[in-house]
Amino acid sequence: MSKVFExxxxxxxxxxxxxxxxxxNPTPETHVSILDDKAILLNLDTGAYHALNSVGxxxxxxxxxxxxxxxxxxxxxxxxxxxxxxAREDLLELVIRLYHLGVVxxxxxx
Amino acid sequence: MMSTASVSHFSIHGLDLSFHxxxxxxxxxxxxxxxxxxxxxxxPPGSLRIIFxxxxxxxxxxxxxxxxxxxxxxxxxxxxxxxxxIDWPCEVSQDHTQLIINFFSRGxxxxxxxxxxxxxxxxxxxxxxxxxxxxxxxxxxxxxLKWKKFYTxxxxxxxxxxxxxxxTGASGQGKxxxxxxxxxxxxxCLSDDHPFIHENGNAIEVLAFPDKxxxxxxxxNLFPELKxxxxxxxxxxxxxYFYVEDLYPAGIGRSCVLKILLFPHVVDQSTSWLEPIPxxxxxxxxxxxxxxVYNPQVAKQEFQTLTNLVQQVDCFRLHFGxxxxxxxxxxxxxxxxxxxxxM
Lengths: 110, 343
Hints:
The structure holds 2 protein chains of 2 kinds. Chain A is an alpha+beta fold. Chain A has 4 helices and 5 strands. Chain A has a single domain, classed as Outer Surface Protein A, domain 3 (Alpha-Beta Complex), CATH 3.90.930. In chain A, strands 2-3-4 form a 3-stranded antiparallel beta sheet, with helices on one face. In chain A, helix 3 (69-79) crosses helix 4 (84-101). Chain A is globular. By secondary structure, chain B is of the alpha+beta class. Chain B has 2 domains: 6-148, no CATH class; 152-342, Rossmann fold, CATH 3.40.50. Chain B contains 9 helices and 21 strands. In chain B, the strands form 3 sheets. Chain B has a 9-stranded mixed beta sheet with strand order 3-1-2-4-9-8-7-6-5, covered by helices on one side. In chain B, strands 10, 11, 12, 13, 14, 15, 19, 20 and 21 form a 9-stranded mixed beta sheet that branches. A 3-stranded antiparallel beta sheet of chain B has the order 16-18-17. In chain B, a hairpin with a 2-residue loop joins strand 14 and strand 15 (203-207). The longest helix of chain B is centred in the middle third of the chain and has 17 residues, at 130-146. Chain B starts with 5 loop residues before the first strand and ends with a helix. The A-B interface holds A 29, 31, 33-40, 42, 44-47, 49, 51 and B 72, 278-284, 287, 291-293, 296, 299-300, 303-304, 307, 310-311.
């Protein structure tokens, strides 16, 4: 598996076209509590905590080593009455935000 | 300043602590701050240790902070600031097992949670208000107790028949006023500022840390017993204060199982009301008043304890109106219902 962090390229540039082969991994420093279907993330590295809404929590709960962003996108489309493009934009927006907060890493697979 | 160290033994909810200081002023303040826990005997071997020394100048503090120490927090010197504790320039860093809280010209704390020992150095403590020594001592104590899974939270806490109410939120939003309203109706005080939270089996307990109760003038005016408290109301560094046992017959409790978590905020309404809030919201609102991440493993455990706390309790926003004496009318039925549910 190859780690995705590529300093020379902006995440926002390549990620939208790489959902099918990108996997999200929580960082080891991230600890999570899920209460009434909402996740609270604690970044033990920075000391910051972040609350996710219910859609964000579904995304978080489906982060897994064998689940690409395309898989998570399909789960969102199946679970919510939402246009595919809207779900895709929401997913990308959250994943990019989580990445910049340091609570996930991204892994682009061949 | 004295050259001979005095030793005091405290037992804080079953945790033995020895306190050593070469300064009689610091020892006296620490003994007063921790008077509910003071023991007559010598501390047993293996006690947590807090050692405080008075020094003449910051350059006399025998601690060198390694350039490789990891800086966790920094509050810079501000022009015109620095008159109160919360304004003081401060830098927190981690060097291997040691947490270093550097207050520069005022002093330094060195806390080794692994070893169960904290050392404090105060520069010319005789020139400080005693409340400031207490802040140093309390900070050292809080960091040491975290390693024993006793976590403090910025909140007020009360107990009635073994069941507890925790009241937290930003300053000026009614924590102490809610606390006083419940206290005068027969609830017992656990703490007005920093109770301890501890997991006992499957239950989250709130443990007492009684101290003087600081009150603003507008709060005093809301409660007849405070307006008429006379000599029981003392002048502190910034506010007036009193001791619960001087004014309220129910006095001080020891511990309880927590049942209600309240987040008060003042509203311009005649009547107060409670609004249930989701547990996820309660946890997000609670974290800023409890969790400070210095050591990741300690913080992870504390985060889990706070999560368990929220799961155990009913959580409410208290929209705090002008009927400040009527708060028990809102809280009593919820506590009774929670008790019935447990039985």
